[in-house]
Design a protein that fits this description.
By secondary structure, this protein is mainly alpha-helical. It has two domains: 59 residues, no CATH class; 118 residues, Rossmann fold. 52% of the residues lie in helices and 8% in strands. It has a three-stranded parallel β-sheet. Strand 2, helix 7 and strand 3 form a beta-alpha-beta unit. The longest helix is centred in the first third of the chain and has 28 residues.
Amino acid sequence: MTEELQQLLKSLGLGRITEIFPEQLKQAQAEDITYDQFLLRLLRPQWHARQENALSWRVRRAKMPELWTLETFPYTKQPGVNRRQIRLLLKAIQNGHRGQFVRAQDLFDDMYASLADRSSPQLIRRLARLDLLVIDELGYLNIRPEQANVFFKLMQERYRRKATIITTNLPYEEWASFLGNRMMTEALLGRVRHQCTTVNIEGPSLREPQGQGAVKR
């Protein structure tokens, strides 16, 4: 490979082609293949490399705490889970969708901060655009009415447009106590429960200690 060609491939971001070019050129000369076939042998690995890099970026952006997939989820520890109903965030990302995992506490903290600098509309727009939003551990938080209002607006924007997964220990009838406004909660649940599947998981915690820790006395 000439220095000029190597520099051009680097400038175009074709790193994978740069890596495989000498070997592929040698094989092409030995097999006497056409230019079209040679080009395909260069472009196909480059395309796969870009797909893998894009997937890796989406996974990092989603901020998932566990990289469980549909195949590796510990179903034996959660017998109440129906395999046909479960669709995890990683699977959606692998299929090219944009998603994000966020803990409810962090979400409401961001909402509170957005109220202070009046950036709530921007926060709602950013989260509303995600193909899949996973909100973990909703409930048992001390929130202000203003935060509940922002949360309601977010769910309203996502309603019937984008997919949302919410994990919570609260039964639906206790959401009003958490959000603090019964009428708003009823309207919210009307949207949340419409065209949704509720999965009740009964079983041991997946956060059981994995070993013995040291105890200071």
